[in-house]
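Researcher: Structure for this, please.
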Amino acid sequence: MLSMASDAKVKRTKLLIINADDFGYGSERNKGIVESYQRGSITCASLIVNGMAATEAASLAKTYGIPIGLHLNLTEGYPVHTALHTSTLVDKNGAFHDRFAFRRAMERKLLDTDELYTEVSAQIEKFQSLAGHRPLYVDGHQHVQVMKGMREVFAQALSRYGVTHTRLPVEDLSFCSWMEDSTLKLYENVVQDALEARGIFQKHGLRFTDGFVGMKTMGSDLTLPRLQKSIECAFNSSPLRSKSAKTSSLTQESNAPTTSQENLFTVELMVHPGYPSPADGGGCGHGPDDFSKSMDRKHEMDVLMDRSLHKFFRNSGIILGSFCDLIQQPSLQECAEKAHSSCQKCDPLSDPTVINGPDKYN
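Model: Predicted structure, token format:
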């Protein structure tokens, strides 16, 4: 539901989708995502169906009305399709190759594309079984969906199941001095992969937001000033809308809009809220990773719940919405009408019932 005030003088309607990854990874993650949704800090979540708490997460999504998509996972835990526990997709222990081994195997064409297609299909079908509907969108754990060799398989599978929206992680990395060189290089590779995947996705009718933010503001790297600047830059100079990009990492030309309307400008913010996982809780079959056990997840929650962030949204004329709003293709008039709603709808944090009401997650 659209929920943020917009400046009537703004020529373009600015829609921000705040999408929480890894729903279903563990009960602590689920609790944090539900609380974040109730506080108006996220607008949708991506369900990781081979996560230890995926069934719980799907039930919570139904209870609290959280719009959810699929967080396709091919690099952590075990395949959903049991026949693939002995396949090119897994190591000697039957677990998925990690993200680096997966990329190397894709580059060397060591992964069977039929097996990849089977697993993508199995995860979509498991999502449908858990949620009771097809995914509103599908993104990728550790951005596997844009990797070379994976793009075509991914797009074909989504097309088969009638999924129309995905994530294209093309982010401006020109200002991120706080990041280590190795991490920056990793994210630059993701951006390049995404630029190369764009045409394939469009060929199969997949749509994605005009801008993306989230890689350079993960975990402890997330601060209010960095987040605000990143969002402003994404709305003001998206490489997927402009005909010529100004930064070296964003150099692909674009002549066609990525969303349904020319005057509706959309940005996805990828976030990872949650509470720290215990050493023996959560994960995708062999325990949680270090990021999940750290306080970084809780740190993201705290920043996203800061009242000044919601004030920034209002002052910037940014409307909060979810992928539902793109799929339903709301008119600009509807966006404007919903934007100028009551103060409580404009700022969920101003309504005490959102925080302390009877629906609070226990």
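Researcher: Any notable elements?
Model: The first strand starts at residue 13 and ends at 23. The two ends are 24 Å apart (CA to CA).
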